[in-house]
Amino acid sequence: MATTVISYINLATSIANVSGSFEADAPLSNILTPRLGQKAIRLSGDTYFEVYFGSGSPTRLADISLIALLGHNILQIDGILNIDIRCAMEDGSQIISVGFDPASLGVNPSDGTFQSHLIWYVPNTDATILQKKCEFVSVAITFADVICGTKNPYTGEIESAPLEIGGIWIGPVFKPEHGISISGFSSGIADNSQVVRSIGGQVWAEPEIRQRVMKVNFAGLTEDEVFALAPRQCLQQLSAHCGVSRPLIVIPTTSDDELMYTQGAYGYLSAPATWELQEKTKDAATGQMVRLYTGALEVLEAR
Amino acid sequence: MILLAELYFNGGNSLKRVASDFYYSKPTDTIGVKEYAGRIMNRPSLRSVAGCIIWGTKSSTSIGDIELSNVDGAISEWVDFDFRDARCILRLVNQGQSFDDAIIVQVCIIDDVQRDGNFIIVRLRGNETLLDRPIQPVLYSAITAAENPSLVGNAIPIVIGKVLQAEPANIDVNDLGYQVSDSAVTIDTVYSGGSIAYGPLESPDDYAVTDTGFVMLRNPSARITADAHTPFVPELTQAGNFFSPLVWSGGDPIGWDVYDGPGSHSLVDDVGIRMVNTLSDNYPRMEVSADTASWYIVVGEIADLAVGGIQIDFGGSVPVEVRRQGRFYAVGKTDTSGNIVISALPDSDVTIRFTHIYGMVAGEGYALDSNVLASALLRAGMRITGGVTAIDAVPVSLGGYDVGIELDDEETVYTAVQKIIDSSCGYMYTDNYGIIRFGNYSRPSGTPVATLSRLNMTRKPKRVTDVAPGLSTRVAGARNWSPYSDNELAGITYPNRPPFMAEYRHIKEGATARTINRAYSHALSAPPIETVIVDEADIEAEADRVCGIAQDKHPLWDIEFALASQSDIAQLRPNSIVLLDDVYFEESNGKIAKIVEVDGAFGQSVYRVVTWGSEAP
Question: How high is the pLDDT of residue B91?
Fold first, then answer.
């Protein structure tokens, strides 16, 4: 089974700081913006905040499959990093807390090389929760005793700094069964630097930011994976929702923690995603004839 | 490289920080953690040109617009801010670099803020446009023109330096009082046309000198003019940089005594001292001691003014009221109190960003061009003495000549300054700190700030020749500010009339006029360069100097080159010296040249400059 994951709906709408304080000019609410450069910077204390979903909250835990802390500068977790997903039961009277240790789910501290993000991909395996009808209330995140700063990716030198967080992402995922096709994944680096050459052949460079560019082709999307109705996720919905103006997270493979970090990217589509009907084929399980589609998207990393 | 912009709207009370990317200063920076919102979508341009009368051009600094993303509507309110002439500071910094290490690449002012679709456009201008304001905002009132009500509403005349035949204002029609300037002048000679005894060639003893002019002791039969000079040079006696918490950390401003009375005062961070007067008296007030019976010029800036204003009392002359936000000046003479008092007008809530007190000190150099330039600049509220953060203009002596100007109510500080620097073929420009500086048509000299060669030039240089369209071998000076006509001089014999009728009493040709370079032969028959130089010897010296430079043909090199660092962006301005170090520069190779034009964009790595002249280093 493929492990490609795309999340294109961010359900986080409001935030409350419970403990720890943030700089007045870099408040915690900054992490709700889609711009990772607009950061929250911790002033003091351990950090405990809660993210809310507002009206229209998802009604089943299955609708939250990816939690990501974007653009942070956490280098090492020496103490606590805990996530509680809080739900209200159908009768509204009971709150259950689903705490888990994200260290086992794909946590990659910043190493100064790529767009840093802690991503917790939550597999839909909690049968207990899945079978209950409940409504999400919040996701609570607690940090204590984390080492933050910048790390020279080549020398390993660390320069300490206060905790910075660029964004929070909590949402469902689009997870095509056949994933990315063979030879269907390519990526590279776009460089915004200015480089001029003098008539004497000297190079004068003004380094600017680098951004990853990722191209993904899907060779075998089923009709449901292209045209499903909400709240199920599909490529058409992804394309219509994101266009070129809403961000998404693309993780080519979630089978390896390091690859989640090195390949996964938060960015924007260069152009709305496209799809094309390829053929009819017999479904191995049902024996029914089904239509298969190909699809493609290109993501330019955002900052 | 991130471009940071600090915009001091509403007199500085609404400081907005934006950048080309989101940027946060560090907790260890002097400003602590501040957010610069990543809304800037472009790289504003810079084009600074040194223009002078010889080249037939005017100096100008053109700074491009800042385009800010406003898709979220969060900054739409900016168009309703008070933005006119508000400060803007542009810096360059690398991501992750400390704010304290950022390079200031331009301090300028905001001209306009516009909304254009999803963008907010902030239009910027060079600081020298602060000079484009009437030099005399103080008008004759019912009090100051009580003896000649027809003057009410007219600007009080100003004389700076040494002038000939200035026409005074008749402020007292009954007692024949005449005002020559708004501050002390020394009357050298009073003329009247016609046949009266105190005519040009007779002893002018039939008048008595007053504080700012003279009183005629008998009726004049014709138009009155006077030769006069201002006997003082400005000298900073008390500075107050209230905007800086480093200077004033919470107590009273250094050097000032503050009396709250029923009012109150406080420090507004990054802005200045706030005086709140809710009653109908003159408190709060701030005082500084001054020499009695001395003249002073107070310059300052009112940062924020909704209603009311301030009153500046010199303890003697009529207090000056300022009811306008922005730069101001006031001139006055202390009486026996010996104090200069600045107080909030009743029911005012006023924030003053700074005040500088300049004493007018008697000195021989009263008419030296630098002192006349200083006195003119003060009248635009410019600070002319202090450190980088407490100075707005640096008046320098371009020719070392004595000059003088008479100013009427249509004159701006800009035109006054232009007359003074034109007298030495000068130009003005602003440096990266926004400080207005001056230079003139002179051979390049000094230490190069950059070496230009094929190692950093991105194209081969272009050469044109300076054709000097405004060049003349003659210089006119000793201007009669109000020449007489033949009829007005009826009592004087014909041979003695010309000096009083001429527009300029002296026109001098340079000693080397006949040997100027062939490229400038048009200068031989050109109209003389008009100056406000007073002395005959100085006029001759300027003519000699100009002709001396014109002995050689001067190249203009148009060069495009890559900058090595942000520091280059900060220091490359007109009047800077560069070394031309490549055979592409032909006969200029190995020589130094003066930058007269800079053309680039903040944050871009390639600039274009035009250099003038080439001299052995």
Answer: 96
In sequence order, what E strands does A60-129 have?
Answer: 66-70, 74-89, 95-100, 117-121
pLDDT, residue B83, reads 92
Q: Given the DSSP bridges, would you call strands B272-276 and B264-268 parallel, antiparallel or unpaired?
A: antiparallel
Contact list in B for residue A164 (CB cut-off 8 A) is 24
A196 with B33: Cβ contact below 8 A: no
Query: What beta strand segments (E) does B230-385 contain?
Result: 232-240, 257-259, 264-268, 272-276, 285-289, 295-304, 310-313, 320-322, 326-333, 339-344, 349-362
- For residue B189, the model assigns a pLDDT of 86
Considering only CB atoms, B455 lies closest to which of A25, A35, A200, namely A200
Identify the pLDDT of residue B203: 44
As given in the structure block, the two tokens for residue B415 are 């035109």
B453 touches chain A (CB under 8 A): yes
Lookup: tokens for B83: 């933005």
Q: Answer whether B459 sits within 8 Å of A39, measured CB to CB.
A: no
Calpha distance B419→B369 (Å, rounded):
11
A16 contacts A86 by C-beta, under 8 angstroms: no
Q: How high is the pLDDT of residue A130?
A: 46
Q: Do B564 and A204 touch (CB under 8 A)?
A: yes
Strands B474-479, B529-530: pairing kind:
parallel
3-state secondary structure of A7: strand
Q: Do B38 and A23 touch (CB under 8 A)?
A: no
| B462 in A contact zone (CB under 8 Å) | no
Q: What is the pLDDT of residue A74?
A: 85
Rg (CA), chain A: 21
Closest residue on chain B to A162 (Cα)? B27
Among B154, B144, B126, which residue's Cα sits nearest to residue B407? B154
CA distance B241 to chain A (A): 26
Touching check for B564 and chain A: CB below 8 Å? yes
- Distance between CA atoms of B404 and B423, rounded to whole angstroms? 10
| Residue A68, CA distances (Å) to A2, A43, A65, A123, A234 in order | 20, 22, 10, 14, 20
When CB atoms are compared, the residue of A35, A199, A204 closest to B38 is A35
A22 to chain B: closest CA residue: B33
B27 contacts A199? CB cut-off 8 A: no
Quick count: other Cβ atoms within 10 Å of Cβ B337?
15
With an 8 Å Cβ cutoff, is B24 touching chain A? yes
Total-model pTM: 0.90
Which neighbouring-strand residues pair with B557? B463, B611
The pLDDT assigned to B393 comes to: 97
| Locus of tokens 């430079």 | B549
Number of helical H runs and strand E runs in chain B = 5, 40
Low-confidence ranges of chain B (pLDDT < 50): 195-197, 199-201, 203
Express each pLDDT in B207-234 by its tens digit.
889 989 999 887 777 788 999 999 999 9
Q: Report the C-alpha gap between A203 and A221 in whole angstroms.
A: 47
Q: Which residues of chain A have pLDDT under 70?
A: 1, 54-63, 87-109, 111-112, 122-136
Residue A135: the pLDDT is 65
Pairing assessment for the beta strands B450-452 and B577-580 based on DSSP bridges? parallel
Q: Does B605 contact A196 at a Cβ distance shorter than 8 Å?
A: yes
Instruction: Return d(Cα A254, Cα A121) in angstroms, integer.
Output: 8
Put simply, the chain A residues between 13 and 72 with a CB less than 8 A from any chain B CB are: 23, 25-26, 30, 35, 37-39, 41, 43
Angle at CA of residue A20, ends A65 and B16, nearest 5°: 95
- Which residues in chain B are closer than 8 Å to A26, comparing Cβ atoms? 24, 33, 35
Cα separation of A49 and A54, whole Å? Answer: 16
User: What's chain A's average pLDDT?
Assistant: 82
